[in-house]
């Protein structure tokens, strides 16, 4: 009882920040893992807050207190899953690196799991989720463009986002036919020539 009161007082006072790797991080990891396990279960329970809480070993109120809703929890899990696992491939030619990265990006995002994750990210209540995905893309493009020399005619990251990524994402999210590699390469070529 004393520990609970201390935690409540500290939370109200705002004097305790979440520690990386602390209890808060472990609870979040358990809840995110529960979401992933429920997604993998072929005949598992529906994706509900009580089902996630039971699998994670927490109370449903823990999930509601931290995320507010099931949609927001799923959006944050999806945003985390959209984070790249590694830096973009480095071949020694930044243009080739950009084309390789774009091919992988289009393939992953236009796949059914990719589309489902994007829908979940956009289904959350917080704008930061979509912003985080945009930041991941920007970081990847920045890493590739940093490889181009000063005299290279490399476009800015914003030009690539506006000229290539935005139309690709529009087609992924709002059309039934996913963009293919040729479409993305044509956008890239046009942006590089502009």
TrEMBL record:
Pfam families in the record: TetR_C_11 (PF16859), TetR_N (PF00440)
Ranges where the HTH tetR-type domain occurs: 25-85
PROSITE patterns: HTH_TETR_2
Organism: Nitratireductor basaltis
InterPro entries per the UniProt record, alphabetical: Homeodomain-like_sf, HTH-type_TetR-like_transc_reg, HTH_TetR, Tet_transcr_reg_TetR-rel_C_sf, TetR_C
Domain of life per record: Bacteria
Keywords: DNA-binding, Transcription, Transcription regulation
Any GO MF annotation of the entry: transcription cis-regulatory region binding
Name used for this protein in its record: Bacterial regulatory protein, tetR family
Residue ranges flagged as DNA-binding region: 48-67
PANTHER family hit by this protein: HTH-TYPE TRANSCRIPTIONAL REGULATOR RUTR, TETR-FAMILY TRANSCRIPTIONAL REGULATOR
